[in-house]
Amino acid sequence: MPGRYRQSHTNSRSRFYILLSIVFVIVMYKWGLPLFMNIVAGNGAQRVSTGKDIIPPQTPILSALPDATNSAQIIVEGYTEADASVELLLNDQSNKVSKADESGSFSFSTILASGQNRIQVKARDAASNQSMSDVSLVTLDTKPVDLTISSPKDGTEYIGTINQVVDIIGSVSKPESQVLVNNSFATVDKDGNFDSRFMLTNGDNTITVTATDNAGNTTAKSIKLTYTP
Prior knowledge:
Helix content: 10-25%
Number of domains: 3
Oligomer: single chain
Distance between the termini: 143 Å
Shape: elongated
CATH superfamily of the largest domain: Immunoglobulins
CATH topology of the largest domain: Immunoglobulin-like
Structural class: alpha+beta
């Protein structure tokens, strides 16, 4: 009898604890869990609910600019967020301020300084968020190309078919220059020396050598050679 009473008492306690656990789970699910989530996310939820714009405008994208130019005036164009305020920075200094149109396009006309120029555009929205474009480097170079034709000499006369083909040899002060000999490309080495073969025709031959650098500066020189078969 005592054993049966002890077992009955133990079973009653077990049922009580099970019931208590069920009640605890129900209470936590209905009230405790939502309260916990509100406590954890409360500050973040308040920040989100303020509606403040913290997203910067689209990073300005600049249209392709030349690496070098001989014109001091240049047009800087591109696009960003529609209606954003756009500021042109030239050599890290504020140059001009404008506004993008409803499609996000903008355009500036500015004057370059001699030498290399750093060009960048800053966009700012109504909430003062801002973004910056990549830097573009443009060199203003107005110095002409020094061109020398060292061989043959102007006025040289050639006789016989063995002398019909001549080498036009010279040099330029800017090795990156493009050199044309009567509209045919000449090979220019890293030191600025060039060489081009030319076939003479009977009588007077005018040979024009034109050198153009990356900025568009052009120098031309001509020599006259006479050929008799």
